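Internal tracking record. Fields below are filled automatically when a chain is submitted to the structure queue. Please do not edit lines marked as system-generated. If the sequence contains nonstandard residues, flag them in the REMARKS field before resubmitting.
Queue: standard
Priority: normal
Entity type: single polypeptide chain
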Amino acid sequence: MPEPLDPALTRLKPLLLDTEGLVRAVASGRRRNAHPEPTRAELRPVELREGRRLQITTTDGRTPVTRNYAGEPAGSAVDALLAQPFGNWHVQTRDAIVQLRVTKRGEAQVHVESQTVQPVDAAHDRAKQHLIDPADPLFTALGADAAKRRQVDAFLRQLAPIARRVKPADRPLRVVDLGCGNAYLTMAAHRYLATEIDPEVRTLGVDIRPEMAERNSRVAEDAGLTGLGFKAASIEEAATDPDLAGVDIVLALHACDTATDDALALAVRWQARGVLAAPCCHNDIQRQLQDASATPFAGLTRHAILRERFADVLTDTARADLLRLLGYRVEVVEFIDSKHTPRNALIRAVHTGTAPTGRRVAEYAELVASWQINPALAQRLEPELAAVLG
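SYSTEM-GENERATED OUTPUT FOLLOWS
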């Protein structure tokens, strides 16, 4: 239920200043008819030589500025950020995730979700910790250079909290990577999960090319990865495979165009609790935009390069909205800097079973109607959406 904004923001302040309990906080977006300066802020605790500090990184959309605070200056800096007209606050602590959204009426919509995480590693002055040792024989077997190792590390940092959250208490964790390709992220994920989350984890990489399944099996054996297998099959064939029932986490990393939608739809049907998808190519929506008789802002789709970039955003927006309608909590994040790969958006979802609100249904309906699109994921999930939306 909406509530007065000022008291809700006041309750955030002690969470933001608690450098022992805070994991990370992000302020973003804007309120109606208002523009915050800066446009985004991120807060996290760091351990410096002089002690633990609150690190605040702000940006105007171009240049990030990072400062470290303690004592009264920290309180003043937090007060200044809370006074800015941000539209959203996402605060993660060791005990809870607090999400505050400012409504069009200027009220606060607050959602609190309990969680338990490990103590915050606030290391800052020390050398950066890798989730997999760069000397691990896995990287030798894969022939991975420093850039690939950084990409692996960035992906694992997105995977780790979801794996901890969805790990079953009574059986091994089960992970499937649909369209795994050369599987270097699949193998890295399995190595990390087996070492840090569940020694009995079972991971399966699925790719339509038999030669890739054979090659990946050889590399996995060379790297000493047990509990990891590969199968030559299409995503459609995987959908009918009884051996894949009961999957906990579905990965779809750089599956091209609507193959990402195939993987997401299968994750929903499997009732996977965790989903991580890094989409690649968005040709389907590009074609639909090109064929549309009218669009809200024609300039966004008139030029081919702008239409391509906008299609990326529109496609992943629709995917995120559809997953939300089907009971997932969804974030779309940048999982690695674009200098490593231009396809660096990651759809990260955890199933909560929350029923969609009328507002969410209306937002999605307006999106697809305005742009005259029929997302591939919606087509694949027609029965599931009909059951939810009526």
